[in-house]
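Why show two proteins at once? Because comparison is the fastest way to build intuition. When a single record is shown, students tend to memorize it. When two are placed side by side, the eye starts asking what differs. So, the first record is below.
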Amino acid sequence: MNVLLMWPPAFGKRIRAEVSAEVEKEAGVYPSLGILYIAAYLEQNTEHKVKVLDGKLEVIDAQRMAEVIKKEKPEIVGITTLTFNILAVLEIAGIIKELDPDILICLGGPHVSVYPMQTLKLKHVDLVVVGEGELVFSDLVEAISSGADLSAIPGIGYYKQGIPTLNPGKNYIEELDMLPFPARHLVDMSKCYSLLGKSKTMITLQSTRGCPYKCIYCDQQSGKKLRKRSLESLLAEIESIVELGFSDLFFIDDLFTTDRGRVMAFCEEIIRRKLKIDFKISARVNLVDKEMLLMLKAAGCYRIHYGAESGSQQVLDSLKKGIVLKQTEAAIRCSAEAGIDSLAYFMIGSPGETREQVFETIDFARKLNPTYAQFSITTPYPDTELYKLGLAQGVFTDDFWGKYAENPSEGFTPQLWTEHLSAAELLRLANKAHQKFYFRPTYIMAEILKTKSLDEFKKKFKTACRLLWAS
């Protein structure tokens, strides 16, 4: 079979995210590792022909996409589906079905895992995959190709004699080493970039899946159990990336530093093998220490992303974040002392949060003085404790995500936690927070001194102007 895996092209419709559009515009572009892993597994374990169309990397309109469909003649198209891009996915599915109604449309991804049956019942959808898709999608393609019964494949949805049918199960892969490296050869990796990266091209990779913590705003789509690749597998992938000529890496793990011993061993191996890489990671503020940070720096780590979330301990506790403000202060300070940049994420509009507490967060961010800060509006994602809490307390008027999943429509905007602050005021405060953090004379001068090229200066200046004009 001819298989096409797709991240929805940018021309498709999407609903508003919780991050200000002005912040999103210059964030960077990375490939979808999910579809590259699925493509690699298919190539390694089947005889099917696999192509990838990544709408995050390719500038493509509806006409161009139609040309790709006509050229590749796929028999099945797998599309990564988020709640925020479901409208785009359905628009694309409609275009594909108009070109050839016999092409099977299979949706997978976070939205499908939360709302599998609702998704399966949507127009133009033939199949859905629940959970991680590498193994199960391969089994599904093999079964369709051979005409086998689909009832034995866990975690898939399909039509049986015209009736939507969902097999029980949510697929998680325990042994991550069994997966081949992502099929990066199927996309143009030169188009990956990050505004804040060390080089023009940045490569994403993943060393773990899952997170054992219980923050109420996280949907934990990778599961609560931390699953780790062996260091042998991870280092082999890094060596293969270096051989391709890339050296700037972004680990997209939820948390890179959960296993301290593994982190230290990883850094030691990077140094011992003399791998000349620069990389950035994400970590909890309570899962780093001075010795670890110095080792990370020696191995090439140049930035750590931390979930600081709030400058109010009361708000942190309401989010079940499991940290205290002093830990955030120590993590940012020790990172700077080790020579590692930091990016601190903050949330505005959490349960019980007042306007005064929002300004506590802004003041806290300025006091912390991380290298970068991002302020987003707390959004109740589907299937999170935050969303369930809002429904139980009557903060949300109805199950708006469930209704949207059954009937996605334009003009939809997710409800926010507007107990004390309106949605419009939350957006203004988020924009104000960025302005108050970034438009400090000392910060501006420090960034000018760090800027190494005219192109980098232009990108940063353009982002700064958008932040300034956002409100």
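Second record. Ask yourself what differs from the first in the token line.
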Amino acid sequence: MLYISTRDNFEKVSAAKAIKLGMVPRGGLFIPEKTPYIAQTELNKMTSLTYCQIAEKILCLYLTDFSQNEIKECALNAYNQYNFDTYEIAPLYKLNDYTYILELWHGPTAAFKDMALQIMPHLLSKAVKKLDSQKETVILVATSGDTGKAALEGFKDVEGLKIIVFYPYQGVSKVQELQMTTTEGKNTFVVSIEGNFDDCQNTVKEVFADESFNKLLQDNNYELSSANSINWGRLAPQIIYYFWAYLRLLDKGEIKENEKINFSVPTGNFGNILAGYYASLMGLPINKLICASNENNILTNFINTGIYDKRREFKKTNSPSMDILISSNLERFLFEITGHNGGKIRDWFEELKTKGYFKIDEVTLEKLQEIMVGNYATEKETLSTISEVYFNNKYLMDTHTAVGVKVSADYVEEEKDEHLAVAVSTANPYKFNSSVLEALKGKEEVSKKGEFEILDELDKLTGIEIHPGLKYLDKKQVRHKQSCHKENIREQIKSILSIKT
């Protein structure tokens, strides 16, 4: 299996090289040259497999320059009861007769990013060895909240690697910020950026594409890679949990052979829902992927009109990990549905860069709408959904999951779609505790309390144990206090790496 650029501007590379590079050096993203397929007869045989075994099976299809034993070793090191607090790794919760919730937050950082970032460091380490690289790898990460801590935790103290995480100042929750800034490890660095997530992400992508800066790094014995979902080594493991959810439902008798299901996915940077799309290309019986947005609903508008327009107000919402106006992985999705038309991708994303918007053709829009629907939930609707679900079902959700549940319910009501839906739960409710408590007890109750008083209040109110990754954060030492403007990211990187020019 070889990997190609979404912009037709780079040679084909192995999986190991695609993972090591992170993104295409000249701009663009790596995708598999072809998508492997799993027939229903084969799916039927997979229902008794553990999460780890499914991971091994899926990744072997994509990472063909890795041996099966290497992938098995990576999977065993990632998906175990030391890293996850449940044997199932990603349990399914039946909310009602037509909705299941797929809990992806049982890893060390209480967010779905752990599903990929517990295995990615193992894959990257093996990739570096395969390519016999003599340089130290520097992982650059732009985060809207969850990826940062998950990446820091995954790459902490890994030999031969340094990791630098950039996050938007005052653009993440206090819990998310403390998770990052209290991280230990000799090779971890965290920097706040004056701006929003798009500023972080765009600047980091520019660094990857900056040939002169990369030459400077190489001259100093460093090479760049990424732990964002722009890296195929981060995206591929996300495909696993779509298969896992389907196979569990099939095994339980909740669905029949060949019966299609829907997935509702809270979506910001488009990586999570893109993994669902690749699962559908691989043969997983998916009826619709429901793209659930918050009030930064640029994807809702795009899916419904074919116009991607970032010339709009950026809103800070109570689901901050989705406060994004430029969804990086959309590029991969469009490359797939246009039949690998790199010319179109180059033109569209150049228009986005220069004009602030682009419009896809009607044929592409029709293909998009065959598999995907889009809608959004307001902040008020998000809080109402948390409250209604908790008091009616005694199930507590975070704000991002609530967006997915609300949008899914609206879709079912509007379209009378009777397919079983799986709402993808992306974070533990305690991770966004202020908003969750506000949903249950009102804003006044929250305004009287500090962040960690709120954690305790939620614990007392619901009886749900605080996730171990979030306990005692206020007692930990803040180790990372660096901050800079987006224009100075290169200087910040050089300072961290002790590079003088």
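One difference worth noting in the second protein: The CA atoms of residues 116 and 237 lie 5 Å apart.
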